[in-house]
Amino acid sequence: MVLALGCGLVAAVVVDRVSPPPTRPVVVTAREVEAGTVLDEADVAVVRVAAALAPQSSLTRAGDAVGRTTSVALPPGQTLTPSLVAAGEIAATAPAGTVVTPVRLADPSIAALLHPGDRVDLVAATASSGAPGAGTHLARRALVLGGAPAEPAAGGLLGGGTTAGGITLVAVLPEEATALAGVGQWGGLSVVLVP
């Protein structure tokens, strides 16, 4: 009995000396938020979590999240990091109801002629066996937001060089982005500049 009482006293002293782990504030979603939502104060909350468990890049003040656009759908309680919310640089320039998607044009030199603010129709070639044919409109009046110019790549084993890069960012309707995802990186797209 004395031994049990002594062990209990030692345990109480040890527990009293163990301090809680350090914490830090993180911004989390206060409720479920859909992709493409511009966050407001009701969408976020600041909570304290164990510093060792908080992502290094997590946002720490509600003001860091308010006004940003969610990149993906987020569940309640999701810790917010810059990769989950767009700071607004490119996303903020896209019109409401649109999404931003990268496309690779068939002719990289055409991509170099496009400027932010241009409106283009994106067309996929549908002709086969080299015969001319009608294209299929995948997006109409897409807004050009910017891009990375094509750069010549080093020649391969046979000396033939290719181009690398040439990505153009455009704002399109969500359903158009789905259609573009299948061909945009392949490079089979042409553009028609529209007013």
What does this structure look like?
The protein has 195 residues and is α+β, with helices and mostly antiparallel strands. It has two domains: 21-86, Type Iii Antifreeze Protein Isoform Hplc 12; 91-194. The chain is 18% helix and 33% strand. The N and C termini lie far apart (91 Å).
Spell out the key features of this protein.
Type Iii Antifreeze Protein Isoform Hplc 12; 2 domains; 4 helices; five-stranded antiparallel beta sheet; two-stranded antiparallel ribbon
* Strand-pairing-aware structural class: alpha+beta
Shape: elongated
Give, in spatial order, the strands making up the sheet with the most strands.
5-8-7-6-9
Q: What's the mean pLDDT score?
A: 79
Distance between the termini: 91 Å
Question: What is the number of E strands?
Answer: 9
What is the topological layout?
Layout: H1 2-17, E1 23-29, E2 44-50, H2 62-65, E3 69-70, E4 85-86, E5 99-104, H3 108-113, E6 119-125, E7 135-152, E8 163-172, H4 174-183, E9 189-194
Antiparallel strand pairs: 1-2, 3-4, 5-8, 6-7, 6-9, 7-8
Short overview:
With 195 residues, this protein is an alpha+beta fold. It has helices at 2-17, 62-65, 108-113, 174-183; strands spanning 23-29, 44-50, 69-70, 85-86, 99-104, 119-125, 135-152, 163-172, 189-194.
